[in-house]
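[job 4471] stage=fold_predict status=RUNNING
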Amino acid sequence: MKTIQPYARFIALILAAFVVAGCANKMAPAQKSIADIEAAVTAAGEDATKYVPDQVQAVNDQLANLKAMFDKKDYKGVLAAAPAVLTQAQGLTAAAAAKKTETMDMYAGEWTNLASSVPQAVAAIQSRVDILSKSKKLPAGMDAATLDNVKTSLAEANSTWAQATQAQAAGDLEQAVTLAQQVKTRTDELLTTLGMTAG
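[job 4471] inference complete, writing structure tokens
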């Protein structure tokens, strides 16, 4: 029995060494898998964060889980789960590009409509203001102070519209549409104030 115990202890040490070696062999690949996912998320850039934030968040959540598994030395678990997460991370760039194209097409269509309707509204308001300014008697519900306010608002609308057209010329359709919508809101209010039809 005395000779068996040292032998058994020796076998146990060898087995433990194999286990440690096996973990060490899986540690580096697991670490690389996590790094590859992080690199794919970084490569997707700000467009992914802007246009497909939910997908980015989903990948980051899974990445956090993988890191937690790695910290617990569950390298086997990391290696099993990482490929699917990497595939999702690598798909972020294409998903963001597709969503960006869809969004830009939407802005382009909206800009076309606003670029047609807003200048017409501004011109109609200007024409009405010119007539009222020359009139000796203002219509019911309109006084000099109200007319002055309309003139001020119209000037601000023209200024904002100029900024919108500059943004559109610079290729920033999102900003152009945002500013143009502000002008449309203001011109609709002015048309109502002047007793005209808002479009």
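[job 4471] summary: The mean pLDDT is 89.
[job 4471] exit 0
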